[in-house]
Amino acid sequence: MSTLDLSVDELLTDVQLRELLGISRTTLWRLRKFGGVPYGKVGRSYRYRKSEVLRWIADNPQQSHQLHLNLDSEQ
């Protein structure tokens, strides 16, 4: 099992985050609205700091079991 590298600090788009987490567009919307996934906005676009998202996943195991993390493709 791979460990989470919280030192990685890049901004992800909606598409990149959905690919990383293995979730649909609707699920990402729900996570933003109700789930507390950390995000910011640049103009009209949402951005997600990868280190904050990974920390959020580690701190919220009740939600992380529903996500299909694609971290192996990042290495």
What does this structure look like?
The protein is an alpha+beta fold and 75 residues long. The chain has a single domain, classed as Orthogonal Bundle (Arc Repressor Mutant, subunit A), CATH 1.10.10. The chain has helices at residues 14-21, 25-35, 50-59, 61-64; strands spanning 11-12, 40-42, 45-49. It has a 3-stranded antiparallel beta sheet. The protein is globular.
Largest sheet: 3 strands, antiparallel
List low-confidence stretches.
none
Secondary-structure content class: alpha+beta
Number of domains: 1
Question: Which tags fit this structure?
Answer:
75 residues, alpha+beta, Arc Repressor Mutant, subunit A, 3-stranded antiparallel beta sheet, 4 helices, 3 strands
Task: Write a compact overview of the structure shown.
This protein has helices spanning 14-21, 25-35, 50-59, 61-64, and strands at 11-12, 40-42, 45-49. The chain has 75 residues and is an alpha+beta fold. It has a single domain, classed as Arc Repressor Mutant, subunit A, CATH 1.10.10.
